[in-house]
């Protein structure tokens, strides 16, 4: 194996694209740029924030990536389990590279977001399940409240 091959195999962007191709998905330059941008960003971003970052790169490549392309691709990446989305408040959903293993606490006053492991909700989840037969998904919507700094 050459060094170039080894590097390409370790590249998460190429791994995702290979999986996408295996499932019959389309692999385009625009999609590669979106994925590259997503992996280089850290933390959550809305589809629009991602599009803005992609836009900066895309212009250098003489390409134009539409919002609809970004949304469609994010949906496909979500089906692949590469990204997940959460609703942190009244605004747009945010996308995150990490899997569905964490939840969010969002302060209604200052907007501070705290990430928590899902296990934090385990005891609550099992009593909800026992009493209502309902399985909670702590990741999909954030838990709203007041942060340490905003509690009066
Ligand atoms: Zn949703
Ligand atoms: Zn706060
Ligand atoms: Zn998160």
Architecture overview:
The protein contains 6 helices and 6 strands. It has helices spanning 3-10, 12-22, 29-40, 47-60, 67-80, 122-132; strands spanning 45-46, 84-86, 94-96, 102-107, 113-117, 143-145. The strands form 2 sheets. It has a 3-stranded antiparallel beta sheet. A 3-stranded mixed beta sheet has the order 5-4-6, with no helix packed on it. β2 (84-86) and β3 (94-96) form a beta hairpin. α2 crosses α3.
What would the keywords be for this entry?
globular; 3-stranded mixed β-sheet; Arc Repressor Mutant, subunit A; binds zinc ion; about 15% strand; about 150 residues; Dna Ligase, domain 1; 6 strands
Secondary-structure map:
Elements: H1 3-10, H2 12-22, H3 29-40, E1 45-46, H4 47-60, H5 67-80, E2 84-86, E3 94-96, E4 102-107, E5 113-117, H6 122-132, E6 143-145
Helix pairs in contact: 2-3, 3-4, 4-5
Annotation, overall tally of beta strands: 6
Could you tell me how far the N terminus lies from the C terminus, measured between alpha carbons in angstroms?
A: 61 Å
What CATH calls the topology of the largest domain is Arc Repressor Mutant, subunit A
Domains (count): 2
> Judging by the overall fold, what is the CATH architecture of the largest domain?
Orthogonal Bundle
Overall CATH class of the largest domain: Mainly Alpha
Give the mean pLDDT: 88
Strand content: 5-15%
Topology order in helix (H) and strand (E) letters: HHHEHHEEEEHE
């Amino acid at each position: 194996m050459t060094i170039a091959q080894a590097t390409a195999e370790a590249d998460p962007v190429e791994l995702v694209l290979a999986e996408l191709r295996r499932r019959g998905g389309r692999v385009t330059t625009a999609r590669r740029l979106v994925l590259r941008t997503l992996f280089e960003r850290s933390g959550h971003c809305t589809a629009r924030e991602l599009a803005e970052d992609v836009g900066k790169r895309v212009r250098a490549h003489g390409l134009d990536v539409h919002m609809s392309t970004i949304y469609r691709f994010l949906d496909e990446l979500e089906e692949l389990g590469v990204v997940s989305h959460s609703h942190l408040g009244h605004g747009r959903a945010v996308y995150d590279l990490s899997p569905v293993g964490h939840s969010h606490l969002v302060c209604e006053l200052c907007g501070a977001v705290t990430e928590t492991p899902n296990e934090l909700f385990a005891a609550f989840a099992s009593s909800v399940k026992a009493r209502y037969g309902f399985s909670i998904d702590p990741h999909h919507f954030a838990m709203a409240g007041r942060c340490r700094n905003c509690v009066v």
